């Protein structure tokens, strides 16, 4: 009686061409990991999330922009030699949001859903808008305190 094949049995093949140097590198890495070449390559291809570097660069740029906005808030406060609990709380809140955002980026790097990066971009854009609004409020406050 023939046995039924389970989903764990490998019956399919994929053929690729590599240079002799690439083959040696793959074999060496597989050996170092304690796996066969097949298990090593399957493990790499099924557990890694491919990240688009240009999109990642855009996200990093947006985080830097948020950091610059926070720095501007702090600079206004330092220039005027004036801070209050509300200003400090706003900066701290923005720092916490950026930390959460950085954690989300790390989470996204290992996520397999392609649409997750778009969601992160939307979050970043919302954060930038919040920071811009807070910067405008502080600038208005600055103008009231120092009308010169």
Features:
single chain; 148 residues; mainly alpha; 2 domains; 5 helices; 73% helix; rod-shaped
Could you walk me through the main structural features you see in this protein, from its secondary elements to its overall organization?
With 148 residues, the protein is mainly alpha-helical. It has two domains: 15-48, no CATH class; 53-145. 73% of the residues lie in helices and 0% in strands. The protein has five helices and no strands. The protein is rod-shaped and about 75 Å long.
Q: Secondary structure elements and their pairing?
A:
Layout: H1 20-33, H2 37-47, H3 53-80, H4 85-109, H5 116-145
Residue fraction in strands:
under 5%
Helix count? 5
Overall 3D shape: rod-shaped
Number of strands: 0
Q: How far from one another are the termini?
A: 94 Å
- What is the succession of H and E elements? HHHHH
The number of domains: 2
| SS content category | mainly alpha
The biggest beta sheet is recorded as: none
**Overall pLDDT:** 78
The amount of helix comes to: over 70%
Spans of at least 5 consecutive residues whose pLDDT stays below 50 are: none
Please outline what is shown here.
Helix content is 73%, strand content 0%. By secondary structure, the protein is mostly helical. It starts with 19 loop residues before the first helix and ends with a helix.
């Amino acid at each position: 009686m023939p046995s039924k094949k389970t989903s764990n049995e490998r019956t399919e093949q994929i053929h690729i061409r590599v240079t002799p140097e690439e083959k040696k590198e793959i074999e060496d890495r597989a050996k170092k990991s304690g796996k066969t070449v097949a298990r090593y390559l399957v493990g790499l291809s099924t557990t890694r999330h491919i990240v688009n570097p240009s999109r990642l660069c855009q996200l990093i740029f947006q985080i830097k922009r948020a950091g610059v906005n926070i720095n501007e808030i702090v600079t206004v406060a330092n220039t005027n030699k004036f801070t209050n609990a509300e200003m400090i709380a706003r900066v701290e809140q923005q720092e916490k949001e950026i930390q959460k955002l950085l954690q989300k980026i790390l989470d996204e790097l290992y996520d397999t859903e392609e649409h997750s990066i778009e969601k992160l971009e939307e979050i970043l854009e919302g954060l930038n808008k919040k920071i811009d609004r807070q910067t405008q409020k502080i600038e208005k406050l600055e103008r009231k305190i120092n009308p010169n």
